[in-house]
Amino acid sequence: MPKNNGHQDKNLVVIQLSGGNDYLNTLVPYQDGLYYDFRPSMGLKGDNVIPIDDKCAFNSNMGPFKTLFDQDKMAVMMGIGYPEPNRSHFRSMDIWHTAEPFTSSSEGWLGKANSLIDPDGKNPVTTVNFGRGLPRALASQGVSVASVGALESYGLYTGLAGASNRDAMLDTVSRIYQPMADGGFPSRRILETGRGALDGADLLREAPSSYKSNVEYPEDNPIAQSLKGIAQVMSAELGTRIYYAAHGSFDTHTNELVNHALLWDQLSKAVECFWDDIQQQGKGNETVIWMFSEFGRRIADNGTGTDHGSGGVAFMIGDSVKGGLYGDYPKLDLSEQLEGDVHFNTDFRQVYSTLLEDVLGIESEPVLKQKFDALDLVKN
Question: CA dist 180 to 155, 186, 248, 249, Å?
């Protein structure tokens, strides 16, 4: 249901940092001696950090993030997580996707949000995913999501000539995935996805033709190309409200200093290009970027990398975002650790409540199944 909260409804761009981004080497406690005690091989210092204040610094590969932070356009959520953290990639990502820490669910929080934004399913591109497969966050019965590799080549069955052939293909899809009963959720979801893909393809394949920009996205940077695709869809004014893309893998058990630096260099350049692009489009105030990872890494390094941990860092970017550091930087003392990990101090569902109510303009409780206090992160 819509929520009249005094905020202008905005578009949400979600960037999933897959694999477990290392919190401590992203937002570095560069003045804490314990950090260097626990990370004799992996601790960042000197030219490898960009100080924010007298406690925290960005990784040196995050220069564009520091620029946005200094412009008060970036909120940094420190110590974000959930109760009883799980160190499995699959389970922890499912928890973030479904907002269900204690039970399993097949429905994603953004899929449910889509159903509230477009309850009659009139727009097959209310949500667009850039990447292979469909993230569980976007799955919900009755909701069609367009999942795109590259816009220029997108279009399931778009090579079929004539409406009659396309109708025949739709009929075939319907027969193959005809649910056995009303409760046949998996079959229905596949059917709805197939139909939505056909409808969405017709809309999305035209998006590049209406796009004009002088921003040059690096061609050898996958997340940059995904964000370029998002900018193209935005420029086409198709009524899309939710955009999704993934970057990684951040599963840096080995060779982290090289791999983690590369991942953040790619992402920083991609976000810089995308932000310049949507500013040129005049969409900076109506766009919010949300970046998260399923968990952080262990406090102590393993010599060449870090292992699965808990508690992480997340980012929100936009002209309408109230920039700054939110939450407390978790303490690294042995007495304060959670079995070698940092404790979380901000429940991610509070941020979801904020994104649902103050960005997408819908009630959060039907999506999250309970009321979480929204954070004061978004300007009217």
Answer: 28, 11, 38, 38
